[in-house]
Amino acid sequence: xxxxxxxxxxxxxxxxxxxxxxxxxxxxxxxxxxxxxxxxxxxxxxxxxxxxxxxxxxxxxxxxxxxxxxxxxxxxxxxxxxxxxxxxxxxxxxxxxxxxxxxxxxxxxxxxxxxxxxxxxxxxxxxxxxxxxxxxxxxxxxxxxxxxxxxxxxxxxxxxxxxxxxxxxxxxxxxxxxxxxxxxxxxxxxxxxxxxxxxxxxxxxxxxxxxxxxxxxxxxxxxxxxxxxxxxxxxxxxxxxxxxxxxxxxxxxxxxxxxxxxxxxxxxxxxxxxxxxxxxxxxxxxxxxxxxxxxxxxxxxxxxxxxxxxxxxxxxxxxxxxxxxxxxxxxxxxxxxxxxxxxxxxxxxxxxxxxxxxxxxxxxxxxxxxxxxxxxxxxxxxxxxxxxxxxxxxx
Length: 395
Prior knowledge:
Elements: E1 6-11, H1 14-22, E2 31-34, E3 43-46, H2 48-51, H3 61-67, E4 72-74, H4 78-95, E5 99-103, E6 106-110, H5 115-118, H6 121-136, E7 140-145, H7 148-155, E8 163-165, H8 170-177, H9 190-198, H10 204-208, H11 212-219, H12 221-231, E9 247-258, H13 261-281, E10 285-295, E11 300-311, H14 314-327, E12 334-345, H15 360-382
C-alpha cells in the first residue's frame, strides 16, 4: 500500500536559473534578480553563486551589492518566468491531477493514485526531476513524505537538485526529525528559535520531549499546539487541487520575525510591484487586492479591498497593500507578509466614459497602466543598467 503520497517540488533559484539557462554568458556567475544595485528595492531571488556571498531573497539590493559587487543585477522578466512555470506545471500534471501550486516555482503533488501507472512515489519524484532537467534545462529539489509539512521540509534538506525521502511510520518520522534544528519547524524564526534555545530546546527532538503545557506557558496555546504536532511530523492538511489561477500573489517569509513596520512595508511594496508586473505580463486587470500577514505566534490575518476600477499598475497595488497593512497593523512581530490580486478581467477599464466625460478613476488607471507598461518595455530592453526610480518605497 502506498504510504508516501505527497511530493513537494521546489524549483531551484527559479528566476535566476531561467536567466542562466537563457543567457549562457551568465552561467556560473552570481545572478541577482530584483531591484537595481543602487535602488531602495529588494532581491527577489538569486543564484547559488550569489548565495555564497551571503545574498538572499528580500535583502535590500544595496546590501546585496555591498556583499557581491561583481553580481549581475537583473530586473525580473515575468513573461519568461511564467512561460517556464507553465511548462513545469504541465510536467506535474502528466503524473497526477492533484496539484496544489504554492507559487510559480513550487507545488504539492498528491500521487497516491498514480502508482499503478508510474510506480511508487520515489520513482515518480525521480521521473519528474528528470523530465524537468531534460525538457526545460532546469533543476528541482523534491521532498517525498506522508504529508505536506514533511514534504516541504524534506525538499529543503538537499538543495539544489536534491531528492529527500521521509520515513512513513510515526516512530521513524520522529527519529528522522529529532536531530534537525528546531528552526526547521514551520514558523520558527530567529526570535522564537532564540526563546526556545534559552530554555535548552535546540533540536526538534528537544521539542518532542517537552511537555505541551510547558510550551503553552511559555508561548501560548496556539504556538504550543503547532510546535508539538509538527515536532512529531503530524499535519492533517490535504493537497488542495484548485491552483491559484484565480489569483496572482507573492509572499515572503522573513529570515527572522520582523518588528520594524517600515521594513515590512518596504518588502510589501516590492511584493505588490512584482504582482503588478505579473498581471501585466498575463494581459489582465484585477479587481481586488489582498493582504496576508502571519505573526510570530502562528496567527494569520487576511484583508482585502476592491480597487476603484480594475487595475494592474504598481502605484495602485502599492497604495492598496500599504493601506491594508496600516489598517491591520499587528502588535506582534511579523513572520510572513504577502500581497495578491483576484477578480481578473482581460478587458481594460472604460477610459472614455459616457457622454458626460471619462470616469476619473478609469482615466487615472489608464495613465498609470501606460506608464508602467513603458517601464516594463524599457527594463526588458536595457535591463538593470537603467534606473527608472521605481525600485524603492514610493508609498
